[in-house]
Amino acid sequence: MNDTAAPLHTSARSADASRVTAWSLIKPYWVSEERWSAIGLLLLVIALNMAIVYINVRLNAWNREFYDALAAKNWNVFIHSMLEFSYLAFAYIFIVTTRIWFRQLLEIRWRTWLTTRFVERWLSDHAFYRIERDRLADNPDQRISDDLESLASTTLALSLDLLSTVVTLFSFVFILWHIAGALTFTVSGTVVTIPGYMVWAAALYALAGSFVIQRFGKPLVAINYQKQRVEANFRFFLVRVRENAEQIALYGGADAERKQARTIFQTIYDNWRGIMTYTKRLTIVNAVYGQLANIFPFFVAAPRYFSGAYPIGTLFQISDAFGTVSESFSWFINSFSTLAGWRATVNRLREFVRSIDEQHTREALSPATEHGGINRHLTDTQSLRTDRLVLALPDGTVLARVGEIGIDPGARVLVRGASGSGKSTLLRALAGLWPFGDGSIDIPVSAKLLFVPQVSYIPIGPLHAALAYPSQATAFTDDACRAALRMVKLDDYVDRLDEDAHWTRRLSPGEQQRLAFARVLLQKPDFVFLDEATSALDAPTERHVYEALLRELPGTAIVSVAHRDSLDVYHRDTILITREQVAAAA
Ligand SMILES: Nc1ncnc2c1ncn2[C@@H]1O[C@H](COP(=O)(O)OP(=O)(O)OP(=O)(O)O)[C@@H](O)[C@H]1O
């Protein structure tokens, strides 16, 4: 539907041009109105990270002093080392705790910002509706809750760790280079000297490990992506069973649901087996790498130690520095699965943003909109009018030729037609949800339109809020709500406005339809469209609610879709919708 009358094909072209990158997901927060507090927190966390690196450097030097004191049986230096260790350890504990607190604070602030923006975009311009109708992206709920949480936390973790690692690496390479010295040996009579040989050994050791891990761990990216999807599908299935518990129970559908649960869970199982396979391989490589790391530095440093180049304290200091350097080099190795999960998250969010950006593309590329689709204009008139309106399906099949209709204020119009002829589709087009077809619709710009489907959405919460929906609960006084409830014969609920409940489960379908009528009475729209809104009511109650509507809202145009003749008396005009193929076949 083309509310602004901009041609559909223009939005399709601009959507094609949009490219979503990981950076375009990360950057907006850091240049937003919250940027100064965000950057301030980030700098604080970085400073605390640097303080930890500094303490690690001090602890490394402490190794030499401590082990040399042990070897020399020097009590005074030993005690001094112990004291030094105590205050270094205390500072370490304090800084690590403060750092995690500020990092988590930054995380939740970033996530809040992201979530607000994503929810806003998802709920704007009917994106949430198009995404479901055209199946543009699966499980938006998971992307907004899990993926955004993971984007904020993992991006921070990875980037802050990377920075600490680089600083640690430089500090310890410097230490290792100086304390371990050069290795000199003779090959076929030629004297070969390798300066800072322990650093090269650590780098080679880590790079070899990285290479092997890369090879073994790469498929984890795709498997992790798949994992989030299958988990979300299963959760969605369970929620649907929960939401439709009564219908399933009445149909005796537990067996069917059990089979379905098994089938969907099988995808989780298969995915998990894939994860197990690759985790096993990664664990073997990591374990070999980790175990070797314990002895490798001693092995490499041994020749110079045995030649008497340095005392035992320095050997331990070298071993500690070597461990830190190779650990820093191998940061990529240890972070591989985190990185894989992060990439999967980013890909899912990119796909989601693209589906929002390109939500109009599917409509624009549909054969049903090649002449511009249904154009909906807001005009300065009193009446709602259609001009050469044709309703079609997304594949271009013409559903019904509605042509010209006019609905004046206070009109009473009945929409009739066989099941599947396109009556609800006509209401969707009038509501701006259905662009497929041709022609135009003029809507009075200042008119309030209200659409009441056969099954109304009722939010979980206090009855007052459920009645006021989609307005805020405060929009209507308690007295107004009570009066509306009485008018639709919901007297039992008059004193329960503050009661919190899952009203869709609590109220019978007929009561839910009466609640929807009470909403109409409260909202007082200029045009109300009732799509089989009394299908669950008995004849006297149907009469009662329609009479209340006509009496209370005399100026409101009432358009009802109905199969039953009982509503004829409340309407003056009829629109007959005839399905095109049915007519042709006849
Ligand atoms: N998103 C969609 N994609 C393809 N076809 C659709 C879609 N939505 C509706 N239809 C088809 O459009 C036709 C008209 O549907 P609509 O709901 O307007 O019928 P209706 O006249 O209101 O029927 P009923 O009286 O049974 O409620 C149906 O055949 C339906 O299957």
Automatic annotation (TrEMBL):
Q: Which terms in the GO cellular component ontology are assigned?
A: plasma membrane
Q: What is its main location?
A: membrane
- Tell me the superkingdom of the source: Bacteria
Q: Where found, per UniProt?
A: Cell membrane
Kindly give the membrane topology term recorded for this protein. Multi-pass membrane protein
Ranges that cross the membrane? 36-57, 77-102, 162-185, 197-217
Which keywords appear in this protein's UniProt record, sorted alphabetically?
Answer: ATP-binding, Cell inner membrane, Cell membrane, Membrane, Nucleotide-binding, Transmembrane, Transmembrane helix, Transport
Per its UniProt record, what Pfam families does this chain match?
A: ABC_membrane_2, ABC_tran
InterPro entries per the UniProt record, alphabetical = AAA+_ATPase, ABC1_TM_dom, ABC1_TM_sf, ABC_transporter-like_ATP-bd, ABC_transporter-like_CS, ABC_transporter_sub-D, P-loop_NTPase
Q: Where is the ABC transporter domain?
A: 384-586
Domain (ABC transmembrane type-1): residue spans on this chain: 43-341
Citing just one GO molecular function, the answer is:
ATP binding
PANTHER family, per database record: ATP-BINDING CASSETTE, SUB-FAMILY D MEMBER, LYSOSOMAL COBALAMIN TRANSPORTER ABCD4
Q: What is this protein called?
A: ABC transporter ATP-binding protein/permease
